[in-house]
Amino acid sequence: MTRIKTHHALWAALALTACATAAYQPIKAGLIEFGGSQKTIFEKGKAENVVPLVAMSGAGDLYGVGAVSGLDGEITVFKGKPYVTKVRGDSFTTDHGQGHHATFAVWARVGQWTEQPIPSTVTGYVALQNFVKERATAAGIDTSQPFPFQVGGTPAEVKWHINVDLTEGKPVTAELFAKSKANYVVKNQAMDIVGFYSEKHPGVFISAYAPAIPAGGSARNAMHIHMVSHDGKSAGHIDNLTLAPGMVLRLPKS
Predict the structure, then answer these.
(1) Which of 46, 111, 113, 185 has a beta carbon 3.0–4.6 Å from 250's, enabling a disulfide?
(2) What is the torsional sign of CA 184, 215, 65, 154?
(3) What is the pTM of this model?
(4) What digits encode the pLDDT tens for the residues 175-185?
């Protein structure tokens, strides 16, 4: 009897997963898919459930990033495996389950990647953004459309965060969203960086505000990047970084 109940529960869970995936229809653009938007959070004053995590994870060729609904964490998908980090107490937890939702997210299926070294002259956030576009263009990728990329290696420093609701029940504004973060710094830690480039989606899955880019200057943010440490213990949104020699850029193989 116990075995029968277990099988029934398993099939029920699989059926619910299938329904959730079938019911959700993402938006497609270039090489990526996405759902929800950052600006919708500010328009509605709340970070609702929009993208079921199961829609952007599972298969080994899936890569994605997003913000957990309710401003309660970060989602990073690397090789189909979800890393859902949430602040709890003075630390954070990492969950690999698929029963979560993003309030906005972007993801892509990439079966094969090409890899090339990042020059030692490319060290900061803006320099990396420019290099990604330059090398993608050289590789024949249409950079007027969104595309995914990866960075691998051991950066000298990474400043990153996990969303945590610090709104005290007030409607979510851009100012409260920027405040609702738990900030961290890591140095010389091996990691993979999952990134998405787009010049057409600020306020959607590309933040119009990036701490690494000074306000009022000519540079505009065109990246959304998350990291997953090689030890699997940490993952989250990168605000700024300093690269180090020996790092590599990966682009989708055409």
Answers:
(1) 113
(2) negative
(3) 0.90
(4) 999 999 999 99
